[in-house]
Amino acid sequence: MRYSEYRAYDAVGLAELVAKGEVRPAELLEVASARLEQVDPEINAISLRMDEVGRAAAEGPLEGPFAGVPFLLKDLGQDFAGYPTASGTGPLRKLKADKNATVVQRWIDAGLVIFGKTTTPEFGAVAVTETRTYGATRNPWNLDRTPGGSSGGSAAAVAAGILPMAGASDGGGSIRIPAACAGLFGLKAGRGLVPAGPDFAEHIFGAATAGVLSRSVRDSAVMFDLLSEPDPGGPYLPSRSAQPYATAVDAPPRRLRIGFTHESPLGTPVHAEAVRAVEATAALLEQLGHHVEQAAPRMDSRQMAHDFMTVWTANLAARLAQARKLSGASDSDFDLTTRVVAAGGRAHSATTLIEAHGRWNTYTRALSEFHETYDLLLTPTLAEPPLRIGQTKPPAALEKILAVLLELRAGTAITRTPIYRDLVLTNLAPVPFTQLANVTGRPAISVPLHRTADGLPLGSQFVGPLGSEFLLLQLAAELEQTQPWSHLEPPLAPAAVE
């Protein structure tokens, strides 16, 4: 199979070719591997090669809806037995997982041919994929820009044509942000629908969930049927759609009432391109017969962001402590930003953490009240176009100051300074819209409908009420059919391997 033929199919389409005997899984893996060799030196999307695993799987036997399709795992929370899950950090690269994560086992059972892992920022802590261990992962649409984070490696790999779909996860926007940066589709499921087992009941009080990044809506829809199967050992038995999610792409949704806003919940600036992205999406929705008007949930959004960060930083502090214990590494072996943000997490008392998490209910109730009037909330996915590589990195002089304070174990003092607040704001201001869905446990999608004046993707986000995954997939499929995007290719390595 030629690369141009391979690139023309989504994962469902490739699986259909395999099922018909028109192509062998080994042939698909060969094309995917060749494309990886061609483009990864430029985009740096792969953190771990698992070629021997891929070759063995491709020889079969394979069963399932994605039998024979090449696939990459995200190197965070997606354990594959016998291989490390480094979580973007050097100290964990030699520690091998003793069992498969539940979602990974489901991908194996679906017939996917796993042949590697993709880059992620250290512990998935920021919205760009840049680490001391792996360097910077770059956006195929512009190598000076980020593909986002924390599923940045997966986004770069899919956008660059290595494969049509890859593993991802989302604890504060980490599926939707890379989807928006790289011109892809991304669904973050509602709380509890996708299992976190077997080693965890849930991540970040249920705010984080696994999923995929894909070029087509139907790939994500078929995948969601697999991932949302109940887990007997999990903490919830969530209600699923009565219809298979795969059928959501077959018929458009009813005409919807949609409220939209492009004002940052933090009160920080929103780039004109992000405003245009939402306004263009609203106009397209109206052309399709949906009712669209400006509206937003009534809540203290700045306090919501603060309460999200309290829980997030405390979680990061726990992750860092666990990694140190497992690896025997010292603090200095981890990225500076990780250590500074974790210091903020350690500074919170147990009372502060519980109070912050308790207020999540307030925001959930406010969003539920919004959804009594509006079927969906529309916002930009990003507050600005994909950031330049290194844009969130503190100046060298500031890094020296932070390193000294950490060495003096003055972490609590750091969190009380404008330096810490500025560091947090630098990382959160470009992506202020995505955390609401994580805090409230509601499903959300990013749809790649807009391009900036210089050709960069910029997605639009929809947030739905509980159980609205089917509706979100229906709407995404309608938008995809009206304004297709999967045929668009970045200028990276145009002379593809044939």
TrEMBL record:
GO terms for molecular function: amidase activity. It comes from the Bacteria. Transmembrane segments: none annotated. InterPro entries: Amidase, Amidase_CS, Amidase_dom, AS_sf. Its EC number is 3.5.1.4. It catalyses: a monocarboxylic acid amide + H2O = a monocarboxylate + NH4(+). Belongs to the amidase family. This is amidase.
